[in-house]
Design brief:
alpha/beta; methyltransferase; rRNA_ssu_MeTfrase_G; EC 2.1.1.170; S-adenosyl-L-methionine; 9 helices; 21% strand; 222 residues; globular; single chain; seven-stranded mixed β-sheet; rRNA processing; Rossmann fold
Amino acid sequence: MSESLLALGIAELGLNLNDTNIANLELFLQEMGRWNQVHNLTAIEGEKDSVRLHLIDSIAVLPILRQFLKDQNPKIADLGSGGGLPAIPIAIVEPEWRLTLIEAVRKKTAFLQHVRGKLKLKNIEILSERVEDVAVQQPGQFDAVISRAFTNLARFLDLSLPFLKPDGLVFAMKGKRADEEMQAVCMNDWRLLADEPLHIPNLSVERRLLVLSPMRKSPLTS
């Protein structure tokens, strides 16, 4: 059942995934469902909603990421990765990309470590630490920062800035409150490069991807 749902979503997104990609996305979803029964990794339950809201939501950003990330091996930080969204689906589909998943909650990082081993993902790093602490340890190391439902936009941008290389980008996955959250952002500090609607097949929930670049340097990297 989930395979047909996943295939339907992928076809509508126009993504050209191979059988291994789809099998690994399926396995990731199964493991999340299994762990969620015990560890409450996510509030979304049920196979149908999981496919749409987890996997399809996460990989729907890929065409836009590919458009902006020109490096063949970009280094991306996923702040507040939770159960690995969107980083794990992205890592499955883009094995040449390097993703660092930062999550302070131990039960969630235990799941991420489990999935990394289960799927043999060699392109991800998992850090069980606070985002602020990692920013101090690895300033200016990343081509991009991404997050899905981690915190409000203004705070996410403040947390992202220390991670970025001079030409780094922030990808913020947002919903219907994106305009409201944008009003709290100081646009003297940030430039909005794109505000793209994300079409999630068979789902009426509004999704948008904001792409921003900093106009100022982080004090940690100055």
